[in-house]
Specification:
Helices cover about 35% and strands about 20% of the residues. The protein has about 240 residues and is of the alpha/beta class. α3 links the parallel β1 and β2. The protein starts with 16 loop residues before the first helix and ends in a 26-residue tail after the last strand.
Length: about 240
């Protein structure tokens, strides 16, 4: 299944990330963290208000962004990517056409996330907000990957620091960052108890949780010219007379 018609950015035929994610989000652990992220998205909705929204990736959080009736909404989910046979190198949108773009595990689907981010940057408006949801490579969840091949442990985890640097190169500024779930899901009661430990929540959880969510805002370079301010302490001398 092809995302972009290039060697650098493809989804392999044996890529089962879509099935793995859907399976994980249906079990108690996935449902638990899905509810947390949905609540968090609701609490920061002022950060991603726009007229034209593009949703790309897993459909788990799509309905939340479809609620906005004041603008357009378009979704490129995994089903669309799989069923489309003639996807070109570029996404089928004009330059500077969307001011809110959501990558819900979208970077996990492609072999070269940076190329996808460059394409997202092309269609983003000058004041666009990009929302990234994915698994955090630098978390305790990554340790479980050594011992388990079940979802989500068999899904690629990405480094939030690398993603941040990529967006920095593309002239974006981070205006929100947070992770969720310091410990993998250990059952409803234990996980609920750990979530109330303020020490872990404030110092560790927000940096090393298994699920990460970031928002990036495109930096706009002002075109208004600055007035030249001259030094007020200047002296005026008479012109020399020409005696010729």
């Amino acid at each position: 299944m092809v995302l972009f018609n290039t060697i650098e950015m493809i989804l392999q035929e044996n890529n089962t990330t879509k099935t793995q994610l859907k399976k994980w989000y249906k079990n108690p652990a996935g449902q638990h963290y899905k509810k947390i992220i949905l609540n968090e998205l609701e609490s920061i909705k002022d950060l991603y208000q726009g007229r034209h929204t593009l949703f790309c990736g897993s459909t788990e959080y799509k309905k939340l962004f479809q609620k906005n009736k004041s603008g357009t909404f378009f979704s490129i989910d995994e089903d669309v990517l799989i069923s489309s046979a003639n996807l070109s190198k570029n996404l089928p949108f004009e330059d500077n056409s969307h001011d809110v773009i959501v990558l819900s595990h979208g970077l996990e689907y492609t072999e070269n996330p940076y190329l996808l981010m460059r394409e997202i940057d092309r269609i983003a408006t000058d004041d666009a907000t990009i929302i990234v949801i994915g698994f955090n490579k630098y978390s305790l969840w990554s340790l479980v990957k050594i011992f388990s091949s079940k979802p989500p442990w068999n899904i690629r985890f990405l480094s939030p620091y690398i993603i941040k640097e990529w967006f920095k190169i593309l002239e974006y500024k981070t205006n929100y960052q947070k992770t969720f779930g310091l410990m993998p899901y250990l059952g409803k009661n234990i996980t609920s108890f750990l979530s109330h430990i303020s020490f872990f929540h404030k110092i560790i959880r927000n940096q090393f949780g298994g699920l990460a969510m970031f928002t990036y805002r495109k930096r706009v370079i002002p075109l208004t010219p600055h007035k030249i301010v001259f030094n007020k302490n200047y002296k005026v001398s008479n012109l020399a007379k020409n005696n010729v």
